[in-house]
Design a protein that fits this description.
36% of the residues lie in helices and 17% in strands. With 312 residues, the protein is α/β, with parallel strands linked by helices. Helix 2 links the parallel strand 2 (54-56) and strand 3 (79-83).
Length: 312
């Protein structure tokens, strides 16, 4: 996402269809997973295990160098992944120096997982698990603040930062498998297409925003007003204007031009917003159709409609 640190180098994938625990020939690799509690580190570790990585959770910082030596000296070319996070306590302060030393002598990558505060709070509420930094009295939001502060030096070292706010567990696992699991496959990108209403404010996480308020508004057609852009009657009305088809064609071609360049630069996901006045009709229809257009071109695309249920 824009505003977040871009990946510094391309992640080297491993062969697909490898059973967990199976020895993989080729150069050894160690992926270190870290980041915020509730961001999906466990799901990422299991996804890497599914594509052949030897997986270790919560390894003490003092043992990382020894573990990397064992992996690096293995003639089998074993690939491994481990998680280190705030459960390490004061030992986490040693990690930047440990990682810096490893970088010069081993094939190692640092993957930093994060999510928005609201998302993390919701996930902890759903699982009913305490935050690792909680003392049982302070709110989760305070624990999150302290964790972000503790992890800031580690985040600066990350080769790849993934914000999982919009991922469900299945999408996250699929994303990781695509990123790490197929030899020779071009790195993929996950595209989010979202509709919204300008009267409710701009989505803060959009990379690209397109204003479709230049199109005639179905809100002023009485029989269409209570419907949304997902209704065939609304879609037919919006499509009846020649500028609609031309706009869709131009934006589709623009995105198909841009996406390979975003992939080349290491971007993992892109959020594209379509906005109209209330977020009920035109933007919904446009986002829904763009999802279909990009999916037809072979991209993994998810459409969401932020304001579709809000009062106009």
């Amino acid at each position: 996402m824009e505003g977040k640190k871009a990946s510094k180098q391309t992640i080297k994938p491993v062969p697909a269809k490898v059973a967990a625990g199976t020895k993989v020939p080729g150069p050894s690799e160690l992926v270190i997973i870290t980041g915020m509690s509730g961001s999906g580190k466990g799901s990422v570790l299991r996804a890497l295990e599914d594509v052949g990585y030897y997986a270790v959770d919560n390894l003490p910082a003092e043992l990382i160098s020894t573990f990397a030596d064992l992996i690096g000296d293995s003639a089998s070319g074993k690939r491994a992944a481990l998680v280190i996070d705030v459960r390490e306590g004061d030992g986490l302060k040693k990690f930047p120096a440990i990682y810096g030393a490893l970088r010069g002598v081993r094939n190692v990558r640092l993957l930093f997982m994060e999510a928005g505060d609201e998302t993390i709070v919701r996930r902890f509420s759903e699982t009913r698990r305490p935050h690792p930094l909680s003392d049982g009295e302070q709110p989760v939001s305070e624990s999150i603040r302290r964790e972000r502060e503790a992890l800031a030096p580690v985040r600066e070292l990350a080769d790849l930062i993934v914000d999982t706010s919009k991922f469900n567990v299945h999408e996250l696992r699929d994303f990781i498998k695509q990123k790490f699991g197929v030899e020779g496959e071009e790195a993929r990108i996950l595209v989010y297409v979202t509709s919204f209403g300008f009267r409710h404010g701009l989505p803060p996480d959009c990379d690209l925003v397109f204003d479709v308020r230049f199109l005639p508004n179905p809100h002023y057609v009485p029989k269409l007003r209570p419907l949304t852009g997902l209704n065939p009657s609304v879609a037919k009305y919006v499509r009846s204007f020649p500028q609609t088809g031309e706009f869709l064609e131009r934006i589709t071609q623009l995105l198909l031009y841009l996406l390979p360049h975003y992939i080349h630069e290491g971007k993992s996901y892109l959020t594209v917003g379509f906005g109209c006045t209330g977020g009920h009709h035109r933007s919904v229809m446009m986002a829904d159709q763009m999802q279909k257009n990009l999916a037809k071109a072979g991209y993994q695309v998810k459409a969401t409609h932020r304001d579709i249920d809000k009062t106009y």
